[in-house]
Amino acid sequence: MIENREMRDKLRKWREENCRNSEQIVDVGEELISEHASKLGDDIWIIYEQVMIAALDCSRDDLALTCLQELEKQFSDSHRVKRLSGMRLEALERYDEANKDYDAILQDDPTNTAARKRKISILKAQGKSAEAIRELNEYLEQFVGDQEAWHELSELYINEHDYGKAAFCLEELMMTNPHNHLYCEQYAEVKYTQGGLENLELSRKYFAQALRLNNRNMRALFGLYMSASHIAASPKVSAKVKKDNMKYAAWAATQINRAYKYTDTLKRHIVHLGGHAEAAMKQYPLPVFDSGWLVAGPRRTNAP
Amino acid sequence: MPIQLTSQAYCKMLLHAAKYPHCAVNGLLVAEKTKEKKKDSHSEPVLCVDCVPLFHGTLALAPMLEVALTLIDTWCKENNYIIAGYYQANERTKDSRPNQVAEKVAARISENFSDAAIVMVDNSRLTMSCFEPIVVIYDHHENKWKSRDVTSDCFEDWSEAQKITSALLEGRSYENLIDFDNHLDDLRNDWTNPVINKSVLDLC
Questions:
Q1: Does B33 touch chain A (CB under 8 A)?
Q2: B187 touches chain A (CB under 8 A)
Q3: What range does the domain containing B183 cover?
Q4: Predicted-assembly ipTM surpassing the 0.90 threshold
Q5: Do B187 and A218 touch (CB under 8 A)?
Q6: Which domain CATH number covers B142?
Q7: Helical H segments across B30-130, by residue range
Q8: Is the pLDDT of residue B113 over 70?
Q9: What is the pLDDT of residues A244-268, one digit of tens each?
């Protein structure tokens, strides 16, 4: 039996990190609400909200309704609570009624971003991707700084295989978050998927950039290896470009092997890699590294 | 040549879908490599003994998929397996048709295994009790993917598969299922899922 304090801390951590571990939230939250409601003070309202949303995710309409009713009693005319009521209707697939709730909020407050985003989510749930994309674009014209929305739009575009537009969304995110290695790495993946030599070179650069921002980003490391290998293998590149990319690929391959060695996950320690990487590895001297693997970027070879 | 699923392959697919109910998930199906090519091998079903869960969320990006195919191919060679199929569970409950991603990956698999199949999970019928098989199997005929009726014949032992899958879903084993995405987040995560495999064996 874990303590009240511990449970509250867990719920807070999950709120702050925006985790979608709904089953765990329901487990912890339900117990907290039923056993310790009186000891929660004002925290109880935000916990009701968190648990309600998690309950919807787990088809626990009983629990969701309980939380919603407590919130409606306490905050009778709140837009925030009305949005939760709408979300419950969405979970029950009563989309027309949910839309009515959201339209009512927007009637009252046209700048309510939460209601607008819920309406777009309904379109997504109904499989109306083209409309969802259109509405989200309109939303972003007005709320240009909404990063969550830009990210959602990039995902919608990726699912429609419109990689050019997905890249544009990620460019917006990279501009406003230049130190975020995840956006860099995703952008590189989109460019790689778009294909063609120019996009491959861009993807390699952004994988490398993601790696500089976070030297533990395994996707960036693998991406660097793949993109450099493909460029080196292309018949359209000059001998110098070929040589440079073989060097990058070889460096990445070494790092990958090193990473697997350190983690000792699988029985085999060496990842089998393509032919030209192994050839290049023999040709170029290997940099010396610390136990914190991946200290240097592709161009630097200084020992720590 | 139709495919057949073992309990291990079937339950890991469903555990993957259950772990990420709000995302699309996908993975590869592997079969044991047989050396001899019998003349009437067209009537022998291909037994998919295991599956490797790949990704959750965005499935339509190429680089990590290529990495996964390479690493898993190597693993297959070491274990005398061959990649024989692809599974996918779409994001929305009511959507269980193979999309462009599924067809592309399956086409890639078909280059090395001519009878590659696509197995789609029917999300709308996913329950704890698993009374009936909830997959739809697609075979490639005349340039199109056509669905086939799924009966208990598509399983090595349906009642065993049903029992094991139901038990693992109830026990929330999916919390411990590792897919390739989890592996990329932390290399210590083992996508061969030895822990789950052992649970399956214990229940057999």
A1: no
A2: yes
A3: 3-33+42-202
A4: yes
A5: yes
A6: 3.40.140.10
A7: 62-78, 100-110
A8: yes
A9: 999 999 999 999 998 888 776 443 4
Question: Best residue in B70, B103, B123 to probe A by mutation, most A CBs within 10 Å?
Answer: B70
Cα–Cα distance measured from residue A173 to residue A185, given in angstroms and rounded to the nearest whole number: 12
Whether chain A has a CB inside 8 Å of the CB on B67: the answer is yes
For chain B, the domain total comes to 1
Residues 6+ apart with CB under 8 A from B50: B6, B8, B9, B12, B29, B30, B81, B197
Number of domains in chain A: 1
pLDDT digits (tens, 9 = 90+) for A108-153: 999 999 999 999 999 999 999 999 999 999 999 999 999 999 999 9
**Predicted structure pTM score:** 0.89
Element (H, E) at B13: helix B7-19
Contacts of A69 (CB under 8 A, 6+ apart): none
Tell me which residue range forms the domain holding A251: 185-273
pLDDT tens digits for A41-100? 888 999 999 999 999 999 999 999 999 999 999 998 899 999 999 999 999 999 999 999
- Chain A residues in contact with B92 (beta carbon < 8 A): 125, 127
pLDDT digits (tens, 9 = 90+) for B127-160: 888 889 999 999 998 888 999 888 888 999 999 9
